[in-house]
Amino acid sequence: MGYEAKLVRSFSRIEPQKLGLGLLATCFLVSLVYISVTDTFAVRFPILNSWLSSSKRAAATSPLVETTLSSPQLEVGLENTTHESRPSCDDADPRSSVCGENDAIETHQNSSSTASYVPFRKEEFSNSTQELEVGLENTTHESRPICDDVDPRSSVCAKNDATETYQNSSSTASYVPFRKEEFSNGTPEVGSEKVEQGISQPCDTKSGHCETDSDGRTQKNMSTIVDPLPIPLTSSSSEKDERIEDLEAERKPLCDTSARRVDVCEMDGDVRILGKNSSVIYMTPSKIGALRRSESWKVRPYARKTDKAAMAHVREVSLKSLENYEEAPRCTVHHTVPAIVFSIAGYTGNYFHDFTDVLVPLFLTSYQFNGEVQFLVTNFKLWWIHKYLPIFKKLSNYEIIDFDNDEGVHCFKHAIVGLKAHSDMIIDPSKAPNGYSMVDFTRFLRSAYSLERSSPIRIGEHPGKKPRLLIIARSRTRRFVNVDKIIRMAEKLGFEVVVSEADNNVTRFAHIVNSCDVMMGVHGAGLTNLVFLPTNAILIQVVPWGGLDWIATTYFNKPSKGMNLRYLEYSITEEESTLIDQYPRDHAVFKDPSSIHKLGWAGMMEVFLVKQNVRLNVRRFRPVLIKALKLLHQ
After folding, report:
1. Which of 435, 528, 532, 632 is the right S-S partner for 429, CB 3.0 to 4.6 Å?
2. Which positions ≥6 away from 524 have C-beta within 8 Å?
3. Rounded to the nearest 5°, which phi and psi values hold at 17?
């Protein structure tokens, strides 16, 4: 009893406040000893555990030892990570020993970083949710740095290539939605949870779609809970106005009317074609609807727009842009290939104009699609389509649509109205898709018509084989009236002579032309068959009387050179023209041919192209054939 009384008296001398502090210090020391040997507090205090774990690893290893990320933890994310840390990349595979992919937040992080990484555990996530949500609403503590304050390029920061963000690899809250340009603009202000001025919130995982920000980039859906984050500074209204003005300046109209021969309209997006109404509707995308002015065009899709006579019967096609989908006709047919709308009116039916006004422009416009294109033809003529069917089948894998009589609403993602054209029977490679040229066109024709020869004979390489000369016969105007004499003279020089006239059987005549090495004829549509000659073959154009050199040069001289043909020309004298049988020698037809040209195209054509035939002076013409033979020796 005396000992107990003595003990009570000694405690009574100690101040209660000092006694309490001593007991608290003792408890804290005991707690530290307990924590050092167990992970009991890992669930309740993840941040403390992270600090302690980092301290233990730092004490156990040297600063140069690399700490790797856990690949399973990164892949499973918040749901299935374990307490054990495994390597993030397969050490056995050198291609995977550098990076671990975090599927949950779609980032790539450096697994060899010296900065420690504490992965989420399922228990940590669920137990700390309330704590983090409170932090989002009312931040009372000083925010941890997103990345290493000393060097943002350091291993503490990992770049998210998918969303252009920077993430803190040592923080449990891992999503920081900074873009590169925003990251460099200084420290943004702290904002609220609402979306302001075009910055969208993360996607709803159940919605099946993502919102986009003002730049049009998709915000990835993030399943992690984030720390309070600053909202990036938004651009001012003046900057937006300048951006809109720049886009408006860059915007191209639907139709290009700058070309000399044809107006061409080209559209990408939602294009709806109503053939029977002769209209094309372009649905303006919502992103540029505010920038694009309402457009309305009327074009005639034929490649001779300045020729009133040719364009008079070409059906007009109306085009307009439309923003309101409720006003648009509903699609009845959806196409997965582009559309090309064109006319076969004008001067079609004339062999030369068939090619220069339609077939060459059609090749120029459509060949780039490799057959995956839909033709819609206005002023449809079935007989004309059948005449050139091999060409249409080679250019398109789809049946041609009669634009004028089709009642459906055909919807395309890309459409062209009108055919691109450069000059008569000429393609300018510098302006053509993929640098196409007339050589490519002739090669295409040889394929379409299954023509065998791509080069002419070289005299001397095949003993006993004669070069073939084709004389283009004409049954009506500008015909040779002494063709028999021409044949005899050519045969004496060593030619095998073929005389033939083109007809509606293009395939048959194409094979005849391709079998020959030299083709000659009076200026006219029949010379259009030069497109079937082998490359480096020879074309001889006989120019009628009447100052027609410019016509001969424009329509066949220049085009033949573009096809890599060798061109020879022979201009007849007035004695070789049958006009001497119709007009006195002192008539303006002979004395002043230019005065006939002043009568206009119709007057000139009537005299020099319709009334005139050719009586060739074979002796005068003979040197031309001899020159052709010399060229075939080269």
Report:
1. 435
2. 352, 472, 474, 477, 478, 609
3. -65, -45
Instruction: Quote the tokens at residue 614.
Output: 């050719």
Return d(Cα 492, Cα 143) in angstroms, integer.
103
- Determine contact, residues 363/310, Cβ cutoff 8 Å: no
> Can you tell me the distance from the alpha carbon of 505 to that of 56, in angstroms, rounded to the nearest whole number?
92
**pLDDT tens-digit readout, 527-568:** 999 999 999 999 999 999 999 999 999 999 999 999 999 999
Q: Which residue has the tokens 């600090």?
A: 51
pLDDT tens-place string over residues 279-314: 999 998 765 555 556 889 999 999 999 999 999 999
Alpha helices in 281-431 (DSSP H): 308-311, 351-353, 360-366, 382-387, 389-395
pTM of the model: 0.62
Sequence letter at residue 391: I
The whole-angstrom separation of Cα 3 and Cα 11 is 13
H helices of 378-474, where?
382-387, 389-395, 438-448
Euclidean distance between CA atoms 401 and 392, whole angstroms: 12
Query: Largest Cα–Cα distance in the chain?
Result: 166
The residue ranges of every structural domain in the chain are 253-435, 447-633
> Residue with structure tokens 């309490």?
20
Phi/psi-derived region of residue 172, left when phi > 0, alpha when psi is between -120 and 50, beta in every other case: alpha
CATH topology assigned to domain 447-633:
Rossmann fold (3.40.50)
- Return the ∠ at Cα 568 (arms to 563 and 573), rounded to 5°: 140
pLDDT in tens, 573-627: 999 999 999 999 999 999 999 999 999 999 999 999 999 999 999 999 999 999 9
**The two three-digit tokens of residue 72, written as one number:** 């399973």
Provide the 10 A C-beta neighbour count for residue 628.
23
How far is 359 from 367, CA to CA, in rounded Å? 11
Where residue 21 falls among pLDDT bands split at 50, 70, 90? confident
Q: 73: burial class by Cβ within 10 Å (0-12, 13-18, 19+)?
A: buried
Beta strands in 436-580 (DSSP E): 468-472, 496-500, 518-522, 538-543, 566-571
